[in-house]
Design a protein that fits this description.
Beta-PGM-like; about 5% strand; catalytic activity; two-stranded parallel sheet; six-stranded parallel beta sheet; metal-binding; Rossmann fold; alpha/beta; 17 helices
């Protein structure tokens, strides 16, 4: 059999000639075997479905902690510590004006801007720093602070005088509704804290704790006040968010290892950045609950997010690995599109539910309206009644009764 299959030398010559090879040339070199190019791990599509594709894309996407990624992890938040002057209350300018009044009674001329470097450090340093800068001799911080409070409370911080910043109450309530603890942590004495909160229309009962400067020797930028507030709330320092307006307050938050949101109600942004706050907003009205819980647009929260931590980078890798395929189907991975059929199925359920209820009510209405006839109606008669048929069971019953009565009459007559 092999003999019949083997081509003769003449046949081989004709085959080579038909392929345009000269008779004396050697056989053509074998063509290389072209194998498909291997794909990267992110480009390979496993047979088990899209879930594995998502996992492969996630593995190839950069993690948030790797170099070159700009999104930081925000972390868990359990409490918010509010500074008072310049954050909850628009009281920095009145405080500086009261300080000018105190020095005016001493016969020393000062300007409101002289107090700016000492804001947020407590009244003793607030007044004493200006006294040292002006070379005031025999300055008594305690008596000066007492007179300061008298002037401030009588002239600038009357109850419900409207010194609260717009949005302060709303943010406090949003924090409480989100399950966060809230506290006032101020370098001011308690007498001023209570007066400012009353002037701003903020009840002390809104707060889970109020920490003032009375019991502390070291005030901001030392972390003591923030650490005491954290301990009073029973919350770890790494779960506390501080909202501050003063550079000393931002520095104190960093010293306490707490995240800090700074507001530019007192100092310019360039001055606040010296303390390295987490981010900066214009005032408390510009701070949203998402800024507190998730770090706004500057960071991303990693608690309870599951696989959404790498959602943006995974999405990019996934779109490349699918090579233009649509992502409209159902995905069990959190952060990816869910099937739109869910809403359609919900609509169908509602249609069936309320449609069945409507039919039942219609049947009840017909039965009540024709309750006398329904007492004697058979299923066939009811069907004729609903379908409008002429051969009603009621008519038949009447004919039958008439025939029976006639037969009975004939029987009686025959007797």
């Amino acid at each position: 059999m092999a003999r019949h299959l083997a081509p003769s030398s003449g046949s081989l010559h004709r085959l080579l000639a038909s392929c345009h090879y000269p008779p004396t040339s050697q056989a053509p070199p074998p063509r290389p075997l072209l194998l498909p190019k291997t794909r990267s791990a992110a480009m390979q599509l496993p047979r088990r479905g899209r879930r594995d594709v998502v996992a492969a894309a996630a593995a190839s996407a950069p993690s948030p902690s790797s170099p070159g990624t700009e999104v930081a992890v925000w972390g868990k938040v359990s409490a918010v510590l509010f500074d008072m002057d310049g954050v909850l209350c628009n009281s920095e300018e009145p405080s500086r004006q009261a300080g000018v009044d105190v020095f005016a009674e001493m016969g020393v001329e000062v300007a409101v801007d002289d107090f700016v470097p000492f804001m947020g450090t407590g009244e003793a340093n607030f007044l004493g720093g200006v006294a040292r800068a002006k070379g005031v001799k025999d300055f008594n911080p305690e008596s000066a602070k007492k007179r300061f409070f008298e002037i401030y409370l009588d002239k600038y911080a009357k109850p419900n005088s409207g010194i609260g910043f717009p949005g302060a109450l709303e943010l406090i309530l949003e924090c409480k509704n989100s399950g966060l603890k809230v506290a006032v942590a101020s370098s001011a004495d308690r007498i001023k804290v209570d007066a400012n909160l009353a002037a701003a229309g903020l009840s002390v009962f809104l707060f889970d704790a109020i920490v003032s400067a009375d019991a502390f020797e070291k005030l901001k930028p030392a972390p003591d006040i923030f650490l005491a507030a954290s301990k009073s709330l029973g919350v770890d320092t790494n779960e506390c968010i501080v909202i501050e307006d003063a550079l000393a307050g931002v520095q104190a938050a960093n010293a306490a290892e707490m995240r800090c949101i700074a507001v530019t109600t007192t100092l310019e942004e360039i001055a606040l950045r010296q303390g390295s706050p987490s981010f900066i907003r214009k005032n408390i009205g510009d701070i949203s609950i998402n800024d507190i819980l998730y770090g706004g647009s500057n960071a991303r929260h990693n608690e309870g997010a599951g696989s959404t931590e790498n959602s943006s980078s995974v999405g990019n890798a996934l779109s490349e690995s699918l090579n233009g395929a649509t992502a409209a189907g159902h995905s069990d991975t959190k952060g990816f599109p869910i099937s739109k059929n869910k809403g359609l199925l919900g609509s169908r359920r509602e249609i069936l539910r309320y449609g069945s209820l409507g039919i039942a009510l219609s049947c009840l209405f017909v039965a009540v309206r024709n309750w006398k006839a329904m007492q004697f109606a058979s299923p066939k008669g009811l069907l004729n009644f609903l379908m409008g048929g002429n051969s009603s069971v009621f008519a038949r019953n009447e004919v039958v009764m008439c025939v029976l009565q006639e037969n009975l009459c004939h029987q009686e007559f025959n007797k």
